[in-house]
# Entry
Amino acid sequence: MKISIILCTYNRCQKLSKALESTAALRLVEPDEWEVLVVDNNSSDQTRQVAEGFCRRYPNHFRYLFESNQGKSYALNAGIREARGDVLAFIDDDVTVELTWLQNLTASLHGRGWAGAGGRVLPQRTFVPPRWLSLEGGPFGLFDRGTVASELKEAPLGNNMAFRREMFEKYGDFRTDLGPRPGSEIRGEDSAFANRLLAAGERLRYEPSAVVYHEVPDCRVHKEYFLDWWFDKARSEIRISGVPACTKWLVRGIPLAYFRRLIVWTLRWVISIKPSRRFYCKLQMWVVMGYIQESYRQSYEGKLKKEKESNQQSAVSVEPKS
# Structure
């Protein structure tokens, strides 16, 4: 079984080098049956030189692909088209992998019982989080569901997941309206694809022995960054799933329940004394504001679309017959 590792990167040549060094040392039962496809998403630094250096050192395992269309989902989809594997694994350019990561992550995908798999994403061993933050989720990009393998009922993270190629042929590629790009940090392209599979009844496996270590840069260990990240995550959730279908009362496309939740969390933030509790309440405020902004955006764009369609129909109806 041929396995392709798709690694998309943008202007992180130093981090990329560490990631590629760790993948070059991978140990598999069938050592010749894997490749790393480095997808350069229009970088302006030394990314190409770094990637091509590994291609020269390991010509049987590394390939370079340039994707000029800016946006991670465009890079991911380009990698899927170019990959040679029957199984496609995904990591980011700011992780390092354990020696047996790929073997353990993909072992269950030889047959047809599992559509995909996700592994554990742990922080770099030297990282110590501040008191006011939880390690799980958020900008840290971590995923740890314990040490026992099980069936996943949620989407794995895009920095440690794998799928049989036929899943993309059957369910389509990553959504290009999601995923980070210059000027936008809206993400969710990975969870949107995995949730598509889960909704269709496909089975995903949690493999705790497939471990990658995610770098937590200092720039992310700040409250402002954390708030912005969750605000954009909330927007991506609405973009993926839409405004809740059970919503009855709307104001300009925004559920009234969101305004109630915003008021509640604001009051809790005001009366909270403990710093960690105050920050948690503020974080929930930012999440709700993300829901509100994206709900309004979708309603406004939907209204414009209907008006355009109505004007086009009117123009056709009044067009004189020859």
In short: Residues 3-219 form a domain with the Spore Coat Polysaccharide Biosynthesis Protein SpsA; Chain A fold (CATH 3.90.550.10). Residues 120 and 145 are 7 Å apart (CA to CA). The chain has nine helices and eleven strands. Residues 275-318 form the longest helix (44 residues).
